[in-house]
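We modelled the chain as a single entity of 366 amino acids. Its sequence is:
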Amino acid sequence: MGASTLEDQALPGKKDKYLILENSKKLPQTGLKKILIRGTNWIGDAIMTLPAVASVRAAYPQARICVLAKPLVADIYKLFSEADEIILYKNKFDNPLGVFRLARELRKKKFDAAILLQNAIEAAIMTFAAGVKLRAGYNSDGRGFLLTHRVKCTKEIKKVHQIDYYLEMVKALGCAPVSREMLLQTKINRVTARSVLGEFILGNNKPIIGIAPGATYGPAKRWFPERFAALADRLYDSFPYQGILLGGNTDGSTAEEVCRRANVNLMNLAGKTTLREAVYLISQCSLFISNDSGLMHIAGALNIPTVAIFGSTNPETTAPTGDRTIIVRKGVFCSPCLKETCPTDFRCMDLITVDDVLAAAHTILK
């Protein structure tokens, strides 16, 4: 996977073969002219589905492939997949009646098949109501009876990295083998990226370090703002840089606290950029330091030197890809708990010191 822990122990890589249904019903190799892929709903998840989308494209090079995705992640598929069209799953569809309204719109497009990367039963109901003849995906969330091509979601497959979780599904459906390495940096227009950087930072001649102190899914994934601030100050002592704080709308107050506590000048851009702008900004960073978050996955897939701080979540299943990543994590008995809020003393994050993250940053910068 490329990522290593602070103790330089390699995380488990992809096995040659998983205990997945060998006899899964394959999709037809010919005759599929229009394929709908239901994308995932979160930024990090969308990044981790990109190899699976590439696998579908490789299997059906002549088909028109459309990705159905929520606006939050649409730019991930627009920038980094070979889909012919991105269909927006707008907020107005995000209710029981809306699902059927969207199904009516999809019916007009006359898809031959739908591949459901999203695990929810709602995706199966929608494509069934849209009259899509072939409907494929994991038999999760009680939706197996609505699928024509079911892939068994085994206990073993749930333990693998999410990239492989999605890849193994499309592999079981007969799609083409592809590399799990995304190499997204090759898909970034450098001129556009420098232009976007110039819109936010004028006259900068220092290296850029990106920091993402927030994370969705509750505070259990977030290292402390005061430690991010102390880290920013310590880094500047040995590596003068321009720091930018990135994140979504809900991360603004956390980023502001980091700015307030730090002595070094940091630019708070959390909630002030589009996702596309954030991608371009991250692509220009010399280093990216982040909690387990969607932006962390973007940085890793862009092969930006990345320090990823893990507490309540499991790096074996959600570590960033790329070969320039170090994971900082303390092996406490209750982690990974996958909870939104720590019910005890938050030791998984409390034990991670500024020195720990600083050492990882110096290792990567060397």
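As a brief sanity check on the tokenised model: The longest helix spans residues 43-59. The chain is about 35% helix and 15% strand.
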